[in-house]
Inverse folding.
């Protein structure tokens, strides 16, 4: 069996995408799809140190160059007449840098109520 | 409604408030909200870069399937050059990734961390040790390719003494990954090709029996079934002298090959050509009533090589050929060895030397991977022992090798196990791990870990 990885499209060129690495998982308070939901806010200070605020938590991390870059492959199903669907991948981008948040998040003291809940 | 955050000892699951499900996320944060967050989190506004990024899940999140793959330098170059890559292998094989030239082992690496993937995440400007930002030197040609022009302005304006207005950009998480693929260059195992081609031997008749026609093997079929790159497959087909007859790949019958090579050598004798004066065209013409011309061309590819043209302007038909010494000697050596069991080594070397065309010199290194010598018994012996007939798993093969002969020099055993050694490593490394060694009179020998 052969599954092809097609090169990036010439119109877009080979893009560079980014990654945020977090300890653990992100969960939404509400069930259902995560699509479209707000997670938090990301700030950089003047030294380039990232601070990520998620709900009541504050995470301080750092920007890192990946030791080996990652390619982002998107899976596609190609329909072929009379045959089984074929799968192929397309190179969408290269990731060379990431923001890494390795430490446990610290709680923000004081109420975030005002901030995170929009008044209707 | 307070946010609920789940914390446990080992992992941290962060729960975020969802405030935008009813209104859609397009509205985004207002400047006031950002200021509130900055104040509540006790961040120093003066120390922050003016542009913050709000992180959301993409509206199309989880409708697309992405895979992350960690790249070696060579593969990165292939990808940057726009090459097509391919995952290859049967259901029973471990998947491999191939460029045109090379094969890589693929393994999935899992991580307990979450990797949030963004198309347009802005990275902080990297400051050089002197403190000046890299982008301030030449913003236009900055290595930071993910920045577009307006963001560049945002990020460079921090160096000026004006206090720019804080603003916020939306960034979409398009995927969350918990694993990625890792790759390692490997030497593919090709023995399956020989197995697939068995029974198709060409002996001068281009018509195949009906049964064989159905099971005929094509290059496309091999690309589908063999976990190796195209170049490596082609090179192996060449090594085992597979020929392409109207799209079907076939091995050549050993006896037939011997007969035709003998006829070519007779032709060389009859013309009294010296070692470097062999004329291919004459050979092809002379033998064309007995042998298909395409096969004679193949014979010249396998056993002869053209000499450089001395006078410029000479047409290619006037090319002179000489022998590929190792290929001719190896073929005659193997033919002799196949005909019987164990040979007295000294006698074999004599008969072998006599069998090859005059001017060629035989040597045991020409039989790498097809013969074994035992020089410790009396008299020393040699026998046919082709690598392609050995077990395909490493431990089985090593076991059999040590049964065949108790101790081996590195150069003796290498041809039989090098297929299992990663390309960047020495075969000796494999043996250090899976065998024991001893040094006798300055020569290192390897023997079984489980033996006496």
């Amino acid at each position: 069996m052969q599954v092809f990885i097609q090169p990036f499209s010439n119109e877009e060129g080979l893009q560079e995408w980014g990654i945020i690495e977090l300890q653990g998982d992100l969960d939404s308070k509400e069930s259902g799809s995560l699509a479209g939901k707000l997670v938090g806010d990301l700030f950089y200070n003047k030294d380039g140190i990232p601070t990520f605020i998620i709900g009541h938590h504050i995470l301080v991390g750092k920007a890192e160059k990946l030791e080996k870059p990652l390619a982002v492959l998107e899976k596609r199903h190609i329909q072929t007449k009379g045959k089984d669907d074929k799968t192929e991948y397309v190179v969408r981008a290269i990731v060379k840098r990431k923001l890494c948040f390795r430490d446990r998040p610290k709680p923000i003291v004081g109420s975030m109520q005002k901030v995170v809940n929009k008044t209707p | 409604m307070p946010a609920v955050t789940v914390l446990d000892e080992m992992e941290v699951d962060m729960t975020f408030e969802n405030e935008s499900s009813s209104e859609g996320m397009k509205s985004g944060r207002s400047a006031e909200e950002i200021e509130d967050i900055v104040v509540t989190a006790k961040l120093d506004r003066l120390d922050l870069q003016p542009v913050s990024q709000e992180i959301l899940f993409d509206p199309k999140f989880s409708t697309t399937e992405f895979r992350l793959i960690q790249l070696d330098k060579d593969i990165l170059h292939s990808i940057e050059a726009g090459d097509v890559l391919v995952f290859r292998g049967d259901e029973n094989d471990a998947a491999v990734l191939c460029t045109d030239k090379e094969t890589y082992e693929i393994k999935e690496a899992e991580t307990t961390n979450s990797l949030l993937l963004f198309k347009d995440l802005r990275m902080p400007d990297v400051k050089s040790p002197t403190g000046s930002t890299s982008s301030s030197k030449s913003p236009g040609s900055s290595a930071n390719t993910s920045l577009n022009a307006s963001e560049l302005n945002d990020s460079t304006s921090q160096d000026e003494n004006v206090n720019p207005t804080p603003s916020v950009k939306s960034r979409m998480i398009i995927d969350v990954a918990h694993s990625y693929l890792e790759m390692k260059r490997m030497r593919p195992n090709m023995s399956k090709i020989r197995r697939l081609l068995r029974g198709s031997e060409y002996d001068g008749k281009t018509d195949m029996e009906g049964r064989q026609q159905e099971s005929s093997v094509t290059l496309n079929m091999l690309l589908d079934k063999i976990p190796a790159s195209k170049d490596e497959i082609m090179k192996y087909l060449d090594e085992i002298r597979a020929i392409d007859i109207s799209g079907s790949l076939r091995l050549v019958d050993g006896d037939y090959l011997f007969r035709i090579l003998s006829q070519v050598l007779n032709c060389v004798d009859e013309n009294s050509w010296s070692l470097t004066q062999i004329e291919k065209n004459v050979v092809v013409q002379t033998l064309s009533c007995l042998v298909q011309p395409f096969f004679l061309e193949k014979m010249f590819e396998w056993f002869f090589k053209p000499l450089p043209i001395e006078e410029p302007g000479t047409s290619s038909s006037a090319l002179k050929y000489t022998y590929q010494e190792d290929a001719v000697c190896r073929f005659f050596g193997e033919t002799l060895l196949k005909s019987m069991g164990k040979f007295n080594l000294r006698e074999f070397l004599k008969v072998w030397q006599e069998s090859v065309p005059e001017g060629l010199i035989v040597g045991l290194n020409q039989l790498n991977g097809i013969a074994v010598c035992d020089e410790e018994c009396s008299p020393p012996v040699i026998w046919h022992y082709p690598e392609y007939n050995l077990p395909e798993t490493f431990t089985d093969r090593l076991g059999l090798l040590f049964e065949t002969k108790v101790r081996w020099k590195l150069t003796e055993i290498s041809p039989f196990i090098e297929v299992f050694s990663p390309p960047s490593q020495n075969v000796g490394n494999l043996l250090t791990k899976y065998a024991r060694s001893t040094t006798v009179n300055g020569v290192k020998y390897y023997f079984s870990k489980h033996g006496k």
